[in-house]
Amino acid sequence: MKCRQFEDAMSTYFCSVDDKEWRTLVIAEKWERLPTSDAVEHLATCPDCVTSLLQYLEIRNTVDYHLEPCFHVAYYSADVVDRCLDKSHGMYSIITNRDRGEGIVIGCCPWCGVKLPTGI
Ligand SMILES: [Zn+2]
Ligand SMILES: [Zn+2]
Q1: In this structure, which ligand is nearest to the CA of 76?
Q2: Domain-by-domain residue ranges, the chain?
Q3: Of the ligands numbered here, which is closest to the C-alpha atom of 6?
């Protein structure tokens, strides 16, 4: 399983897992206590996707990330503490001044490089 496949599958594998239990086991890297699957196998070897899973558990009830170009931009433009992206007219921008609503439109995801729309 590759990272992008893992991201796409998160909503299938982890939509109803126990948030607290999984957080505890994943952070402690207790892979043997989680049900065996190719997704859990990937987690055991990929710290980036561990981060994505923890973020997914945070927004799984409020954001459908499949509607956006990748999980990262969906997460970082959502209403979360780590929010650093703004989304308008389908374009994503890095927030440079929150109060004045200023930002710089980005053409690809800073985390995975997927192309993002830059025109309306
Ligand atoms: Zn990965
Ligand atoms: Zn991305």
Answers
A1: 2
A2: 3-61, 67-105
A3: 1
